Amino acid sequence: MPDQSIPEARTPDAAPEAATSDQAAPRAENLSRRKLLSTAGATGLVLGAAGGAVGYAARPAEATPLTSVGDGQVMFHGKHQPGITQGLQARGHLVAFDLRAGAGRKEAAALLRRWSQTAGRLMAGEAATPDDTDVARDAGPSSLTVTFGFGHSFFARTGLEKQRPASLDPLPDFSSDHLDKRRSDGDLWVQIGADDALVAFHALRAIQKDAGSAARVRWQMNGFNRTPGATAHPMTARNLMGQLDGTRNPKPAESDFDRRIFVPSSGSGDPSWMADGSYAVVRRIRMLLDDWEQLSIKAQEDVIGRRKSDGAALSGGTETTAMDLEKTDAQGNLVVPLNAHARITRPDQNGGAAMLRRPFSYHDGIDGDGVPDAGLLFVCWQADPLRGFVPVQRKLDRGDALSRFIRHEASGLFAVPGGAAEGEYVGQPLLEG
C-alpha cells in the first residue's frame, strides 16, 4: 500500500520539510512544562522532531540524541490546524463525539473553546488544568498535535444546516465496505498524535474530560507508527504487511500542494468558515494478515507493484524512481501488473486526484478465531473529497489486487476548519458567524 489509496506511513524520524511560519517549532528554551534531562553518551538517534509534511523519501538529516524526542513542539495557533502536514507520530488516538441530548450551538461553541484552550496548553508542554493528572509530568511536548473536525450530523444538531459544505455529503458506498455504523461518522472528530504514548494518552484524557455534559464518545481508535530513532537512518516506514508504505504523497514544495489539500480563502464552493481548512477521510482498514502472509514475496510484490525490500517500483530504480507502466519482461508481460495497487493509485492514472495520507497502524488483539484484528487507521486530507478520495477508491473497487487482503470496517468524513488565531478557538467563524 505504498502509493495513493492506502496512506503512506513515513516514519516520524524522517527529515521533515522546513516548518511553515504559522506552525514553526519553537526552540527548546520556549518549552514550559517538563524538559527532558540530557543523557550523557546517549546511544539512540532521532532525526527532525517536528514540522514538515509526510509522504516522500526521507533526506539525510543531522542526528540528535534520542532524549530530544520530547523537545519537539508544534504550534496550536496558525493558518492551518496542526496534525495535517506534520510528520507521522509514534502514537495516535482518533475519537468521535456526539453532542448529548439538549446540547446545541451554544454548548458546542463552549466545548470547542475549552478544547482549543486545552490543546494549546498541552501542545506548549503545559499542564491541562491546575489539578492535572500528571500522566505526562516527566515528558516534553513530544510533538503533540490535536486536530478538530465536524461531521455531517453536527450541522443539524446545531441548527447550522445552511453552513454545511456540499463537500461534506456522505461518501458513496464502495464494494469493499463492511462498515460498522457504531464505529463510523459522528458529530465531532478529534485527532491526537504525539511521539510519546503517555503524552498522547494525557491529551486524550483531557479532551474526554473537557467534553463534560456537552458530548459523549461515539467511538475511539488507537494507533501507532514507528518510534523516532528506531532505524539507523531516516526511511519510509513499513505497514503491518511489511511494505514500505507511502512513496508518492504530495509535497508542500509542489506548486499545487495547497490547492489540492487546503480549501482556498476565496473562489471555492465552500462556505467562508472553511477557508484554509481541509477534509479528512477516516477509514479503519483491516488487513487480512493470515492470507497475506501465505503469499510468496514475489506474489506480494506483484500485488503492490513495488519491491518489498526497498519500495522501488518493479520497473526498476530506487524508491523514488518514476514507475515505468509500459515496461515488459522477456516474455512480453508487463513488469508492473495491470491490477497492481501502485499502478491503479497513481495520480496520473486518476485525473490528478491526490490526497495527503497520514495514517496510523493499529492492532486490537486476536479474535475468537485466532485471527489478528490489525490494519491501518487511514486518514487522508484533501481540499475536496469528491476529487481526492472518492475517484481513487472507486477505481480500486474495480480491480485492485490488494482488495482480497483488506476490508474497510469503519468510515467517516469530517470538515476540518482552518487554524485558530491567538485568542480564538477552532470553528469560531462557524459557531459565532
Question: Describe it for me?
Answer:
With 433 residues, this protein is an alpha+beta fold. It has one domain (72-432). It has 9 helices and 11 strands. The chain has helices at 105-123, 152-157, 197-211, 257-261, 289-292, 297-304, 341-344, 389-397, 428-432; strands at 45-46, 64-65, 91-99, 145-150, 188-194, 215-224, 278-287, 356-357, 360-366, 372-382, 406-416. A hairpin with a 5-residue loop joins strand 9 and strand 10 (372-382). The two termini are 42 Å apart. The model is unreliable at 4-61 (pLDDT under 50).
**CA-CA gap between termini:** 42 Å
Structure annotation, total helices: 9
Question: What amount of the residues lies in strands?
Answer: 15-25%
Sheet with the most strands, sense and barrel status:
5 strands, antiparallel
Structural classification:
alpha+beta
How confident overall, as mean pLDDT? 86
Shape call: globular
Instruction: List SSEs in N-to-C order.
Output: EEEHEHEHEHEHHHEEEHEH
What is the percent of helical residues? 10-25%
How many structural domains are formed by the residues? Answer: 1
Rg over C-alpha atoms, rounded to the nearest angstrom: 21 Å
Number-wise, the strands total: 11
Low-confidence stretches: 4-61
